[in-house]
Amino acid sequence: MKRILKSFCLVLSVSAVFVCLYSFSSPKTSARKHFVFPYRQAGLSERAAAAHLLNRFTFGATPGEVDEVVKMGLEKWFEQQLTASLPDDTLNAMLAKYNALTLTNTQVVNEYPRQGAVIKMAVKEGLIDKDSIKNDKKEFRTWVQAYMLQKGYKQEQDLYRQFVCQKILRAAYSNNQLQEVLTDFWFNHFNVSITKNDCAEFIPAYERDVIRPNVLGKFDNLLLATAKSPAMLLYLDNFSSSGADTTGQKFRLKKNNQGLNENYAREVMELHTLGVDGGYTQQDVTQAARVLTGWTIYPMDTTGYGNGIRKLIDRIGEENLEKRGFVHDGDFLFTPNRHDKGEKTVLGKHFAANGSYQEGVDLLEMLAANPSTAKFITKKIAVRFVSDNPPQSLLDKMAKTFRDKNGDIKEVLTTMVCSPEFWAPQAIREKTKSPFELAISSVRSLQAKITMPYQLYVWITRMGQKIYYYQAPTGFPDKGQYWINTGSLLNRMNFGLAIASQRIPGITFDLAALNNFHEPESAAAGLATYGKILMPERNLSQTVKLLTPMLNEPELFTKVNIAATNTPAATQTNTQPIDGDQMMAGTKKEPMKGNKLLNAMQTLPGNNTMLAQVVGILIGSPEYQRR
Predict the structure, then answer these.
(1) What is the pTM of this model?
(2) Alpha-carbon distance 361 to 320, whole Å?
(3) By the 8 A CB rule, do 280 and 97 touch?
(4) 566 has a pLDDT exceeding 90
(5) Which of 48, 226, 462, 545 is geometrically suited to a Cys-Cys bond with 190, CB 3.0 to 4.6 A?
(6) CB-based contact 531:621 (threshold 8 Å)
(7) Cα–Cα distance, 367 to 358 (Å, whole number)
(8) Angle at the Cα of 17 from the Cα atoms of 15 and 23, rounded to 5 degrees
(9) Beta sheet of 295-297, edge-to-edge order
């Protein structure tokens, strides 16, 4: 970390502040008090404990929220969050305009067709020749857009834009903060990516119907729901996996069926349940893949993967599917004609010949109940909510609860927060915010109004986290070393200055109102005052002392922009906002020079230039990166 920060100093003279901050701001001692949760042993005060709860189980405290938690009682607040039943009328009103968010997968397929499907329809209708696709691509794209408009089809990018916007709004404004934090956590654990076109259109419903409703339930239910979702079936290719029949011969497959596919079987063991060191072998992967053959998607149209199955269903008759061994559950379909009916053995468990859909359910239940799964899942939870390196004593308690309570996520979280290790000095403010967490916590700290959430997404992407687009099934790493490097520190400072000066379109707030319209006597006093507002219940004396020299830096904005632009690790670091279409196309504008940004701050109506600079420096500081 210090090596990274020293390199930062070479490109930004004021950056020496950051090296000192990371050296001195690591919490060693705190003022403390008692409560039902065992923070008394750690010496935390009730207010400090409330701030710690908010840092861990929300996307950031809003002004005055520490007071609210203390007044309610810390344990009661936590129990209330575990129910995830607080009214969200204001948030729901914001989401109402995003009409694609309520669509079923079938509606999405028919209203937001992929471009490949559109082209096939046009060719089939004789409106375009296949060879013309290879000619003038710009003219061809214009034609495709016109064709879609004529047919009433919508662009996929509009669907993804709405999806991104809802995530930002939910994280920023939901009263059920723990549910949203867990939705982010479990989506990342069971990651699917928009980068894979086949599954992209099903990801909105995946989060809405599969992840969010199950984040506080039993782990086995969440595991089964993800396994049966179209997004996961397509992302890890299990939708096309077919096995051998009882004679050991391969099925004769149509062109869309690729035979046995082990992708999902491998990842469900390595990433979703047991962990890479969970005690399974390659033979177990192959056998598990055979168990899960025939798990596919109920056809939502007559193109692509659904064409052959639709014809089969029409031939058999929907009313006869169950009699023939098919299982239709929402968008999921088990097809017995593709299922490997031979004997199998996974992790010592024998699956008899002529099995069906149920043996796949039994396999997933077995994996969910495995002791290795208890260790692997609870460690990931502890890393997310406690520290990058949680103590073994805590992990043992959480794993035991997972086993004893049959994977009850609420019980695991309760064991964690009731353990002394959760409140230990080593766990306080020892997590690093991801770009998404930084952006959302900033909005919440400033009590900002978001009218253009996509612009915030553009900035989150610039800082290195393109949500929903992480390609690997591992999901984004959840450790500070992944997020903090020279380029990211520069980008974060740039973000802090941009949001504080209200140069991110559609993000508005009143800095003066945050301090009851009492203007600090000086910039240094502003650091102390607004530091307490943005980072409640922290000892910021060292932070204020080390940030103060930055207030006198005459070319702060210019240096930050130049350093960010010239750092190889930094991408899309310009302060000038770009629209979503430009970002998707990978284009960007020239960075705004420091004097232009300063001029913009000075002419911004209702904003104080000094306060904006103070708040920007605070948000960009290393201490604010901690949670």
Answers:
(1) 0.87
(2) 22
(3) no
(4) no
(5) 226
(6) no
(7) 14
(8) 120
(9) 295-297, 332-334, 327-329
Q: Which of 142-146, 302-306, 440-444, 531-535 has the lowest mean pLDDT?
A: 302-306
CA–CA distance from 430 to each of 25, 388, 438, 485 (Å)?
10, 8, 14, 17
Q: Do residues 524 and 509 make contact, with C-beta atoms less than 8 angstroms apart?
A: no
* Residue carrying the six token digits 């949680």: 390
Go through 460-479 and write b for each residue having 16 or more CB atoms within 10 A of its CB, e for each that does not: bbbbbbbbbebeebebbebe
- Distance, CA of 425 to CA of 163 (rounded, Å): 38
DSSP code per residue over 99-163? GGGG--HHHHHHHS--HHHHHHHHHHTTSS-GGGGGS-HHHHHHHHHHHHHHHT---HHHHHHHH
Are 299 and 357 within 8 A, CB to CB?
A: no
Phi and psi torsions of 63, nearest 5°: -55, 130
Among candidate residues 208, 225, 125, 134, the one with its CA nearest the CA of residue 167: 208
Q: Is 204 helix (H, G, I), strand (E, B) or coil?
A: helix
323-372 residue pLDDT tens? 999 999 999 999 999 999 999 999 999 999 999 999 999 999 999 999 99
How far out from the chain centre does Cα 103 lie? 21
Q: Are 564 and 573 in contact (CB under 8 A)?
A: yes
Dihedral of the CA atoms 205, 206, 211, 212 (nearest 10)?
Answer: -10
Per-residue pLDDT tens for 603-619?
444 446 889 999 999 99
Instruction: Give yes or no for residue 12 having a pLDDT over 90.
Output: no
- At 429-478, the pLDDT tens digits run 999 999 999 999 999 999 999 999 999 999 999 999 999 999 999 999 99
Burial class (CB in 10 A: 0-12, 13-18, 19+), 213: middle
Which residue's structure tokens are 């102390």? 528
pLDDT, residue 155, reads 93
328-340: pLDDT as tens digits? 999 999 999 999 9
Strand partners, 250: 244
Quick check: 229 pLDDT over 80?
Answer: yes
By the 8 A CB rule, do 292 and 238 touch?
Answer: yes
Q: Give the number of C-alpha atoms closer than 13 A to the C-alpha of residue 516, restricted to the C-beta side.
A: 2
The C-alpha atoms of residue 108 and residue 106 are separated, in whole angstroms, by 5
Residues 325 and 380: beta-carbon distance below 8 Å? no
Query: What is the mean predicted confidence (pLDDT) over 414-437?
Result: 97
Of 569, 525, 532, 568, which is closest to residue 548 (Cα–Cα)?
A: 525
Provide the strand spans (E) within 289-393.
Answer: 295-297, 327-329, 332-334, 344-346, 349-351
Residue 449 parent element (H or E): strand 449-450
Least confident of 30-44, 54-68, 105-119: 30-44
CB 574 within 8 A of CB 588: yes
55 Cβ neighbours under 8 A, 6+ residues apart: 61, 429, 431, 627
- Are the C-beta atoms of residues 80 and 178 closer than 8 Å to each other? no
Q: Which residue has the tokens 């203390």?
A: 70
Distance CA 422, CA 388 (A): 12
User: What is the SS3 assignment for 539?
Assistant: coil
Q: For 331, list phi and psi in degrees, rounded to 5.
A: -90, 0
Distance CA 143, CA 145 (A): 5
